[in-house]
Amino acid sequence: MTLCSKLLYFLSLVLIFNINTALAINSTADLHQNELSDGLSSQTDFSLAGAKGNVDKYDATFSLDLFHHNEYRTWAMVLVAARSEAANQLTSDNLFSHVRLFLPRAPQRDLELYLQLSQDEFSRLEYRGLFGGGVRWR
C-alpha cells in the first residue's frame, strides 16, 4: 500500500466520521490487502468557514490521522474536533477519537484491539466510549 493510498484511506475515514461518528466501526480490509511499508504516515486538516447576514455563523473542524506499521504491529488513529456557532449560540461541539491496533498472528489471521471515544455536548449521551477486540481472518 503506497503512502498516497494510505492517505486516501484516512481521508475517507475522516469524511465518514465528519458525516456520522456512529459509522466509526468500518471495514479495515484495505489495510491488509497489500504489503505495507514500515514507518509513520500522517495527515492533518483544518477548515474554517463562516457567513455573515441575518444569522452570523461559523464552523471549524480539525482532524489528525496517524498510521504506523512495522512487521509486528500496525497502529491506526483518527482524531476529529468540530465546533459550530450560529447567532452567538454554540450549535455543535464534538470530539472524536478512534485508535486501532492490528497484531499479525498468522498469514491469514490478525488480532485486533480498538478504543473509540466521542463527546457531543448536544446529544442525549454526551460522552460515549467503545472498547473491543477480536480476530480477523483474511
The global form is elongated
H-E order: HEEEEEE
Note the gap between the termini: 16 Å
Count of discrete domains:
1
Helix content: 10-25%
Mean pLDDT, to the nearest integer, reads 78
The count of β-strands is 6
Total number of helices:
1
Concise overview:
This protein has 138 residues and is mainly beta. The protein contains 1 helix and 6 strands; from the N terminus they run H-E-E-E-E-E-E. It has one domain.
Layout: helices, strands, pairs:
Layout: H1 3-19, E1 39-51, E2 57-69, E3 74-86, E4 89-106, E5 109-120, E6 127-137
Using brief descriptors, characterize the structure shown:
single chain; 138 residues; mainly beta; six-stranded antiparallel sheet; 1 helix; 6 strands; 12% helix; elongated
Describe, in plain words, how this protein is organized in 3D.
- The chain is mostly beta strands and 138 residues long.
- It has one domain.
- The chain is 12% helix and 58% strand.
- It contains 1 helix and 6 strands, in the order αββββββ.
- Strands 1-2-3-4-5-6 form a 6-stranded antiparallel beta sheet, with helices on one face.
- The two termini are 16 Å apart.
- Residues 19-27 and 29-34 have low confidence and may be disordered.
